[in-house]
Write a structure and sequence with these properties.
The chain has one domain. It has helices spanning 16-20, 24-40, 46-53, 57-66, 76-91. The radius of gyration is 19 Å and the shape is elongated. The chain is built from 5 helices and no strands.
Length: 97
């Protein structure tokens, strides 16, 4: 587990009752969610966020996956298209096959 420190944050009235009594798993999920916007805007990586939280990257990815936040943000068709583009560039093709 990572070293911790206390900070004060402003939350809407009514929210504090949900934050007062947390078990370690719920606290980890909360902290992962607090870091998610910084992963999304590419300020930090999944690996760095996991390091901050004191867990493995795969554990963090699993947490986000369970919450519905996909590690990969592309569809299979988009990935296939990018892979084809990569293959064409690697072979110096102009797109004809």
């Amino acid at each position: 587990m990572a070293k911790t420190e206390s900070i004060t944050i402003k939350v809407p009235i009514g929210m504090s009752k949900y934050l007062n009594q947390m078990n370690p798993k719920t606290e980890l999920i909360r902290n992962a969610l607090l870091l998610y916007p910084y992963i999304l805007n590419q300020t930090i990586s999944h690996g760095r966020a996991a390091e901050i939280l004191g867990i493995r990257k795969s554990e963090l990815i699993d947490i986000y996956d369970e919450l519905g936040y996909s590690y990969l943000d592309k569809t299979i068709d988009e990935l296939d298209s990018e892979l084809e583009t990569f293959r064409q560039l690697r072979h110096g093709d102009s797109g004809s096959r």
